[in-house]
Specification:
Wadjet protein JetD C-terminal domain-containing protein, JetD_C, 14% strand, single chain, Dna Topoisomerase Vi A Subunit, Chain: A, domain 2, 18 helices, alpha/beta, 6-stranded mixed β-sheet
């Protein structure tokens, strides 16, 4: 028997809720009800062949009837004669639909949200109509969101940091936590002259609405005492803003980028070099340091699929950078120290060398084991020193060849 049951009817209304259609109708004031539901009923042949099952099915529909209304039709059967059977199922009102799926409390909260928004800033109502379930999730924060919108209308392009906004009941990280939703809402509520549309997305929030950007920072160490800078302390562990790093005037000829802090702190001295503490995905803090493209740059990350993905991304900043200790030989020599990647990277990485690409594909094919990884900090420092010695020897040979 594949006729529509009360459970099928409830699922139809539940699906409308999950799509946001019911709340959207409240926001737009375009009634969704009365609504005829999809309804599959017995055929004429089934009436005669499965008459007992048909009676049970009708009894079940009638027994569970409450939120829905049954429209009956009298059908004449050549064997059974005249019989009334359910012909259509209707949900007559919003209240009936909500009762059917047990969402009356949520709808009441959304109605309060609409009333508050209509009273304080009707320009935001289209957002609630477009994303009603998202609005419902923000119910407990909605008053604060309206307060932020009102504050920005009174203080366009404030040129302060986000956490400097002083509004009662709004903690310092509130705007940062809700930037995506706030951005869409502010685009509706603010006048065009208060929005700089060159900036987009979560990262562009500050520039788009006139806030100061928190400066990105670069942490690095000079590995050659002959190149020491006039700041940074005795150990030359230095942190500067991205702008200061971009304008750095240094005789550094080689740069190492590492992802592990201990490896960064313990990185050996090396002639004419510095080491930068990386930050995983995202190299915005180095993107303006164009002088890096004129240096020999080596990237050392984890030996796993994400390590190669980060290397691939770093090459968008420094296209000619070389990988360090991210090769098959290093991987296989540390077999006893392998771990497992929880969610390996599977995408195409177009900026890897042929050798790196081959190893990346072998890792993804589970050639040596399932989702294996070798974290950078597990590689012994003797391997690092040997790799650095090879670089020194290579430079020495090139130097002799130049003078020969």
């Amino acid at each position: 028997m594949n006729w529509t049951t009360p459970d099928h009817l409830r699922k139809q209304v539940q699906k409308l809720w999950e799509k946001g259609a019911i709340l959207r109708s409240m926001a737009t004031e375009e009634p969704l009800f009365p609504l005829k539901l999809a309804f599959k009923k017995p055929t004429s042949r089934e009436l005669s062949d499965d008459f007992d099952d048909v009676r049970k099915w009708i009894s079940l529909l009638v027994e569970k009837q409450g939120a829905y209304r049954i429209e009956w039709k009298t059908v004449e059967h050549r064997i059974l004669g005249c019989n009334s059977i359910p012909w259509e199922i209707w949900i007559d009102s919003l209240e009936d639909g909500l009762r059917m799926i047990g969402k009356g409390k949520e709808a009441k909260s959304f109605a309060s949200l609409l009333a508050l928004t209509n009273d304080r800033d009707p320009s935001i109502l289209p957002w609630l109509a477009r994303k009603p379930l998202q609005g419902l999730d923000l119910c407990e924060h909605w008053t604060a969101i309206l307060d932020v919108v009102a504050w920005l209308k009174d203080n366009p392009k404030p040129s302060i940091y986000l956490r400097q906004i002083d509004l009662p009941g709004i903690h310092s990280k509130f705007i940062e936590a809700h930037r995506l939703d706030l951005g869409e809402i502010l685009d509706l509520a603010l006048p065009e002259e208060s929005i700089d549309r060159r900036y987009t997305g979560k990262k562009g929030f500050c520039g788009r609405y006139g806030f100061k950007e928190k400066p990105l920072r670069v942490r690095f160490r000079i590995l050659d005492q002959q190149l020491s800078l006039p700041y940074g302390g005795e150990d030359q562990d230095i942190t500067v803003t991205e702008k200061a790093f971009a304008s750095l005037n240094s005789d550094v000829t080689r740069v190492f980028v590492v992802e592990n802090e201990i490896n960064f702190l313990a990185f050996p001295q090396f002639p004419g070099a510095m080491v930068i503490f990386g930050s995983g995905y995202g190299f915005e803090n180095l993107s303006q340091a164009h002088w890096l493209k004129n240096r020999e740059v080596h990237y050392w990350g984890d030996l796993d699929t994400h390590g190669f993905a980060i290397l691939n991304q770093f090459r968008s900043v420094v296209p000619d950078c070389r990988s360090l200790l991210m090769d098959e030989k290093t991987l296989l020599e540390h077999r006893d120290l392998w771990g497992e990647e929880i969610t390996p990277e599977r995408g195409e990485l177009s900026m890897l060398t042929d050798e790196e690409q081959s190893l990346y594909r072998r890792l993804n094919s589970d050639l040596w084991g399932k989702s294996i990884r070798l974290e950078q900090e597990r590689i012994g420092f003797n391997h690092l020193r040997e790799a650095l010695d090879r670089l020194k020897q290579k430079k020495s040979i090139q130097h002799r060849q130049y003078f020969d």
